[in-house]
């Protein structure tokens, strides 16, 4: 069948003889099927496809067209699966597979590498392009329907080819209450059903509905059951039967509910109507972590979706949002919205390192540095050279996040390493492998079978087939077991069927000691919230753990992006309770002196052990020689020694700060406790007996003259005493602000302006607890 891309054959072959080529062609024009076959005339071709479904579907389609068995001339390679014979000269592979092949043999078998659908700008595609461009050993072809062709052609010194072949016209119809209405999930099932009813009435072919994820697909599939038409789900990891059914011509009408997997490369035959929800799940970077959020699509994605309806005949695109909805123009590249840890580690395994590769655009500096810090802390890259260490080189080939790979390597025994491999195999699968029972009887049965169960032990047991009655996703469980078998083989461990038993307590403690940041403590001031000093989490509904736990070992989290960093919610999906009194034994804690006492005429200190700002324990002991200056300063602060001294020093330092503000002097002024500590050292006081040799005068603060303090007191008082109200005063004179803070007294309301000093030209606010009120 003729395709719009066909007129480009001769120009493409001529350009490929000269060097790199950039091909810009509309969705459904045939570039993913024609270009690999044309390029194969000059040598073996590797086609790098972002999506697994597209890899297998394109290879199967072209193999069928060639009349040869799959893998003979045309094959594919995806994680855990490949169909490639020795003389196969066109191979479709995902970017992760292509990168690992590059590290194994520099892709020396292939003459041409085609980076298909490059507009998706995955980080691994960006990295692969940078590597191949730097080595200049292959002819490169970049293809896309929305590519910035001229810019890429310039960067690659490539020939730019545009396909002028047009698809069939597609009419657009918008279902929205307002022309500027943005895509929304509200009443999505009802609106999809309405659009499908319109499509069934106004078109004759199949209907392709774009939805944000598997959950929405399953829910809407049920909602469409009354339409008396076959409904097929299509998403990454769905049953192979559904994929085959969706991609083959049928004699009856169908509705295909798909995620973005159907947006490019995959051609679903006989589609005459696209229903576009305008939604997708897109990753974001929040506080250094990659999180998933429900977002409106960009205009380039909307164009791609529309093109699916004009593949073989005129079509219709029904948008479930306003015609003038303010969508962003382009989907941001992954390097701008995801963690760069894997990218930096991969680059560090090369001689160039991440800074030596010609990325199409500079990597975000903050995300890159965060990745470097993470890898250095893990010991995966060298801090001086930026090159991968032996640990880093052993981590990169693993099909896991580097933190999970490092956890496997850290296990002290074979049995614990097997247990961690099985656990991370469940975590590594994007889909949910199993669902906890919801009925009371089923939960009771689980408790009887596993009296000391937790998410971690249940995950391992499900993978090992020890809970046959658990509700599982068959495809996800199969993939998790493939991960386990691959990792077990890599580490020369027994296969899954011969898994060794393990000690739960030893496993939990080994994980905590290897990665202490996985331990979260219950926050005293936040209901059902746990923290590790960096992030806060709550328990997800699907976790077996209870929010009444005082501390948790958290293995897997799911972060929902909000409208800002503060609104992002991180949920723990796989967690295990840890006995609180063991926490300080298992992880590094922060120790600080919180009080000083006289016991038997000797100084004694109370030490507080904290983790994530939560007090774990307190104990008393004598101060060490190194601690003595700060302990003595603390005793002065607590008015145990020289009772009036601390307030005198504090007042003098506060007025020194005010004086500097008036003079616009940026010099640093010490905190009172720090000043007193330094004075103890300066005066050579090494024991309690040495205090007999000094007086209060030796500790007085001399950073500001006494006469200057007196001149400031009336205009800038540090305390105010009003009727039934005592107040403290803070000054920010450079910002022309004064804050008065409630200290004590029965009066609740803010003071009146006439009760306060003149403070001409200064904005005044009153603060009591978290409440702040302007005073005018």
UniProtKB/TrEMBL annotation:
Q: PROSITE patterns annotated for this entry?
A: HELICASE_ATP_BIND_1, HELICASE_CTER
By its UniProt entry, which CDD domains does this protein fall under?
Answer: DEXHc_RHA-like (cd17917), SF2_C_RHA (cd18791)
Q: Which Gene3D superfamilies match?
A: 1.20.120.1080, P-loop containing nucleotide triphosphate hydrolases
Q: Which Pfam families match?
A: DEAD, Helicase_C
Spell out the coiled coil positions from the record: none
Describe the location of the Helicase ATP-binding domain by residue ranges.
Answer: 12-165
Q: Which UniProt keywords apply?
A: ATP-binding, Helicase, Hydrolase, Nucleotide-binding
Name the Gene Ontology molecular function terms of this record.
ATP binding; helicase activity; hydrolase activity; nucleic acid binding
Q: List residues of the Helicase C-terminal domain.
A: 191-351
Protein name listed in UniProt: DEAD/DEAH box helicase
Provide the species name.
Pseudoalteromonas xiamenensis
Q: What is the lineage of its organism?
A: Bacteria, Pseudomonadati, Pseudomonadota, Gammaproteobacteria, Alteromonadales
């Amino acid at each position: 069948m003729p395709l719009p891309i066909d007129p480009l054959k001769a120009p493409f072959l001529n350009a490929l003889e000269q060097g790199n080529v950039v091909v810009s062609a509309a969705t459904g024009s045939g570039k993913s099927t024609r270009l690999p076959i044309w390029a194969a005339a000059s040598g073996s071709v590797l086609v790098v496809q972002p999506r697994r479904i597209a890899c297998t579907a394109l290879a199967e389609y072209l193999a069928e067209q060639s009349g040869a068995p799959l893998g003979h001339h045309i094959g594919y390679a995806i994680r855990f699966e490949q169909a490639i014979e020795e003389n196969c000269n066109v191979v479709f592979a995902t970017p992760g597979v292509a990168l690992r092949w590059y590290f194994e043999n520099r892709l020396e078998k292939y003459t041409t590498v085609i980076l298909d659908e490059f507009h998706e700008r995955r980080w691994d595609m960006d990295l692969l392009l940078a590597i191949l461009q730097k080595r200049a050993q292959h002819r490169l072809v970049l293809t896309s329907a929305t590519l910035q062709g001229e810019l890429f052609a310039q960067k690659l010194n490539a020939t730019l080819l545009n396909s002028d072949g047009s698809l069939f016209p597609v009419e657009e119809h918008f279902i929205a209450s307002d022309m500027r209405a943005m895509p929304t999930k509200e009443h999505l099932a009802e609106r999809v059903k309405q659009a499908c009813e319109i499509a069934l009435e106004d078109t004759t072919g199949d209907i392709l509905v774009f939805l944000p994820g598997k959950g929405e697909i399953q829910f809407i599939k049920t909602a469409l059951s009354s339409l008396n038409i076959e409904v097929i789900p299509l998403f990454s990891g769905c049953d192979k039967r559904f994929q085959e059914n969706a991609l083959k011509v049928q004699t009856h009408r169908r509705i295909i509910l798909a995620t973005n997997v159907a947006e490019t490369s995959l051609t679903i035959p006989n589609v005459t109507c696209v229903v576009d929800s305008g939604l997708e799940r897109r990753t974001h970077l929040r506080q250094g972590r990659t999180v998933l959020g429900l977002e409106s699509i960009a205009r380039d994605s909307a164009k791609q979706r529309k093109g699916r309806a004009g593949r073989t005949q005129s079509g219709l695109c029904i948008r479930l949002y306003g015609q003038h909805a303010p969508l962003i123009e382009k989907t941001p590249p992954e390097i701008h919205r995801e963690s760069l840890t894997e990218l930096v580690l991969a680059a560090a395994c090369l001689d160039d390192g991440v800074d030596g590769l010609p990325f199409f655009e500079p990597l975000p500096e903050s995300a890159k540095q965060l990745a470097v810090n993470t890898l250095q802390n893990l010991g995966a890259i060298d801090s001086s050279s930026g090159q991968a260490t032996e640990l880093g080189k052993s981590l990169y080939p693993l099909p896991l996040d580097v933190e999970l790979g490092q956890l496997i390597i850290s296990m002290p025994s074979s049995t614990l390493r097997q247990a961690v491999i099985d656990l991370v195999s469940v975590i590594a699968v994007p889909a949910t492998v199993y669902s906890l029972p919801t009925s009371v009887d089923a939960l009771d049965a689980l408790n009887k079978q596993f009296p000391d169960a937790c998410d971690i032990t249940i995950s391992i047991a499900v993978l090992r087939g020890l809970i046959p009655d658990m509700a599982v996703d068959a495809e996800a469980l199969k993939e998790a077991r493939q991960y386990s078998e691959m990792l077990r083989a890599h580490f020369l461990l027994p296969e899954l069927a011969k898994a060794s038993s393990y000690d739960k307590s030893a496993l939990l403690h080994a994980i905590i000691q290897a990665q202490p940041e996985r331990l979260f403590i219950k926050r005293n001031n936040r209901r059902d919230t746990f923290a590790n000093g960096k992030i806060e989490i709550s328990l997800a509904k699907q976790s077996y753990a209870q929010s009444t736990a005082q501390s948790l070992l958290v293995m897997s989290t799911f972060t929902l992006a909000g409208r800002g960093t503060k609104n992002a919610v991180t949920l723990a999906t796989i967690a295990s309770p840890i006995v609180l009194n063991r926490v300080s034994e298992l992880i590094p804690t922060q120790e600080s002196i919180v009080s000083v006492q006289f016991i038997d005429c000797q100084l004694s200190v109370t030490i507080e052990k904290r983790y994530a700002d939560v007090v774990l324990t307190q104990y008393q002991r004598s101060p060490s020689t190194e601690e003595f200056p700060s302990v003595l300063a603390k005793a002065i602060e607590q008015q145990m020694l020289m009772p009036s001294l601390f307030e005198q020093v504090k007042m003098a330092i506060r007025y020194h700060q005010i004086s500097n503000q008036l003079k616009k002097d940026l010099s640093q002024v010490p905190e009172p406790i720090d000043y007193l500590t330094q004075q103890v050292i300066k005066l050579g006081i090494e024991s309690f007996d040495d205090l007999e040799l000094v007086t209060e005068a030796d500790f007085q603060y001399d950073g500001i003259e006494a006469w200057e303090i007196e001149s400031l007191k009336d205009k800038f008082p540090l305390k105010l005493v009003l009727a039934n109200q005592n107040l403290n005063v803070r000054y920010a004179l450079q910002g022309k602000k004064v804050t008065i803070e409630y200290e004590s007294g029965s009066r609740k309301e803010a003071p009146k302006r006439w009760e306060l000093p003149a403070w001409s030209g200064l904005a005044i606010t009153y603060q009591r607890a978290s409440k702040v009120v302007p005073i005018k």
